[in-house]
Amino acid sequence: MSTRRTRLRPLGVALAALAACVALPLTQGPAAAAETPLSQGKTVTASSTENAGTPAAAAVDGNTGTRWSSAATDDQWLQVDLGATADVKQVVLTWEAAYGKDYKVQISKDTTSWTDLKSVTGSDGGTDTLDVSGQGRYVRLQGVHRATQYGYSLWEFQVFGSTSATQPTCGTADAARGKPASASSTENAGTPASAAFDGDTGTRWSSQAGDPQWVRVDLGSTQDICEVDLTWEAAYGKDFQIQVSGDGQSWNTLKSVTGATGGTASYDVSGSGRYLRVYGTARGTGYGYSLWEVAVHTGGTGIPPVQGGGDLGPNVIVVDPSTPNLQQKFDQVFAQQESNQFGTGRYQFLLKPGTYNGVNAQIGFYTSISGLGLNPDDTQINGDVTVDAGWFNGNATQNFWRSAENLAITPSNGDDRWAVAQAAPFRRIHVKGGLNLAPNGYGWASGGYIADSRIDGTVGPYSQQQWYTRDSSVGGWTNGVWNMTFSGVQGAPATNFDTGPYTTLDNTPVSREKPFLYLDGSTYKVFVPAKRTNAQGVSWPANAGASLPLDQFYVVKPGATAATINAALAQGLNLLFTPGVYHLDQTIDVNRADTVVLGLGLATLIPDNGIDALHVADVDGVKLAGFLIDAGPVNSDTLLRIGTPGSTADHSANPTSMQDVFVRVGGAGPGLATNSVVVNSNNVIIDHTWLWRADHGSGVGWDTNRADYGLRVNGDDVLATGLFVEHYNKYDVYWNGERGRTIFFQNEKAYDVPNAAAVTHDGIVGYAAYKVADTVTSHEAWGLGSYCNFTADPSIVQTHGFQVPTTPGIKMHDLQVISLGGKGQYAHVVNNTGAPTSGTSTVPSKVTSFP
């Protein structure tokens, strides 16, 4: 397994560099250069940091003995929020020995669009003093080329200029007074919703005694809201949210309050909307919620309306058959990304319709390739789209985080090679030949996923341990190691799990293909496929569904703030995340039905300071697709939550779906999250996910990247197709909803369990990989495997891989457990049924039907 090493420079080099930087005086410039920089001590973010000792904040702390340094790639940035709009006159960069040779200094009012203040080429390090002229709130260094093999490293990043003496302030008038009001309930006729907005502290709104409850006001027009004052009666809200909406249907949370104690309180907020509500989730007393007054103040800085559409950003590479040096473009990105397992580079290749001859697109980490036609055959590659494992000595078990989509491939030698492990979907591809899923030399491989694809020839898994294929067509399937599962696949082999690896379902009960970007003439649109029932074979060229123009999407680019993202959602925009790494200082709240959140190039969300990354309300038809959530170093409760706790609505006609949404805890650095994904809504479709508590990389240890649960399902009628969940400290999957179904499950238990005592509970050694709660009466699953590799204590014998209630409504088909080389064992397969594993032979123990 690969391990990231922190770079240590020789002490002499570091001291010499420090001495050089201290000795170099600042170039004489305008008088502002002698003043305290506008940037000093302000909020700062970066695309990456080398380690915990070189944070972004060190570049603006006024201390020339501390520094920020980035990961060792060219595309890195540092961004400072000046706190207010400023006239920027000068920027001073004091470089450490690892300096930027070519870079840009840019300015923005909103982090959405950036203007170049200065482009620098051929810098020689030391101190760069740049006279500039521009107006904005945010200033960033955008690296283009490094001068050394290391990252970018700055002792100080100083921005000089002046802020306006007339910064907008929050108004004192109450914009809500006397406006139309409504509520979830009222205690009686004497406590109406309107009483909370009448300006009279002797009248009040009060609700019935239950959770949740809300009261809302219609401000009459969209307003920039900067402060909300609440005056509670004795029956106060302990936990509540202040929310805004543009239409009274989709809500954006401006402030989440927990542990309130009543009385009068004022909350500074920033957001825009026509409707405002106080949404209570926990009462402070046994009575309902009761408010004397809610006052709303407007006119602060607010967030300007977010514009939809625009360009796709610097990390989306759009090509056509006439693009010069096309092979070189593929090769350059691959050279950077081939072994860049935990780096920050993110890339998306988009191929315009046409025929591409002699191309071999090798696909490395965090790289995606997609055709821009409405159908795969609109984009023809006479060549290859290749994943191999030369970077890892022919071992493909770590070929994660990449994708191919919406292309036709005529392989140069008859078979295309796609030797991947988890989180590497192969979607909507027409292979005019065969498909080889093993690396050159047939080394270890641990994949994978195919959907909505037609392979004219034979698929050869060879060394692949497991694979799931859905709603596709194959010319043949040669073999498999342990678990080859198919649903809705024309040409799939017949079920043979007793003596072979095959589990085959004639159709997929419910499915909906992933949304994708395409060109309609010269206009970008996102196609959103329709739901299918009992599907078999590919969805194209019929293409049932709807097209959304790009101007209905906020095109999110690196550096965008969570506040802007939430403002875009509140306006009714969808989200298209361009390739990049996005640090979030507030939870992204998706509250509108049918919202599309689509990522390109494995766009990555990182929640900071222990927040949750993404919440989806209990609404119809949200589509989440194509992105990675990476846990931050402060524990988050839940990285992705779909539906609010206690959700009961029926979404069977238009379910929410998550597709190619991956979660990582550790590996790229310390990460902590109690739950990776919690599904509270009913009827959700989980179509291909890999939830991974890291077993290698940086920030890995039993408690260092602790994550108790991978997937928790509380909603009813949830379907998982292609479920990969690995290495969690407790249950990898805990299913608490009724009538749940899973088609294909792949799991490894945590490698680093220190001893049996650490995972012993209720008289059971080890937490089941897949547990159906004791209260559940109906559940069904097909093609499940759990493997153990207890490297920290090989003597551990886990009681079972699967644990389910023994009732007529529980039906489990084709289960297996495997000891990988004898590093630990299983005593049973499911509950107390199934032969134990033994020895070092890595032979499955199977149960074909339970009970």
From TrEMBL:
It holds the Pfam family F5_F8_type_C. Residues 1-33 form the signal peptide. CDD domains: GH55_SacteLam55A-like. Keywords: Signal. Residues 27-162, 165-299 form the F5/8 type C domain. The keyword Chloroplast does not apply. Residues 42-66, 168-209 are annotated as: Disordered. Residues 42-52, 182-191 have a biased composition (Polar residues). Gene3D superfamilies: Galactose-binding domain-like. PROSITE patterns: FA58C_3, PROKAR_LIPOPROTEIN, TAT. PANTHER family: F5_8 TYPE C DOMAIN-CONTAINING PROTEIN, FTP DOMAIN-CONTAINING PROTEIN. This is Discoidin domain-containing protein. The lineage of its organism: Bacteria, Bacillati, Actinomycetota, Actinomycetes, Kitasatosporales.
